Amino acid sequence: MSDMIAAFFERLNETHGLNFSVFYDAFDRARFITGLWTTSYICVIAIAASLALGLLGVWIAGGQSRIGRLIVRGYVQFFRNTPPLVQLSFFYFAVAALLPTVSDGFGGRSPLVSGTGWAIIAFSLFAGAFNVEIFRAGIEAVPSTTVEAAESLGYTRLQLYIHVVLPLAFRICLPALNNNLINLVKTTTLAYAIGVPELHYAASQIWSESFNVREMMNVLLVTYVLLVAILVFVMGRWERAMRIPGYTT
Amino acid sequence: MKRIVAIALACAATLAALPALAQDSLAKIKEKGVLTVGVKNDYKPWGFLEPSGKIVGLEIDLAQAVADKIGVKLEMLPVIAANRMEFLKQGRIDMVLATMGDTAERRKIVGMVEPNYYAGATNVLAPKSAGLKTWADLKGRKVCAVQGAYYNRRVTQMYAPELVVFPSVPDALNALQGNNCVAFLFDDTLIVSTLSGGDAKWAGYEMPLVSEDPQLWAIGIRLEDMDGPFGKLVKEMSTDWHKSGKLLELETKWGIKQSPYLIETNKKLKGGA
Question: Cα A18 from chain centroid?
Answer without folding.
Answer: 33
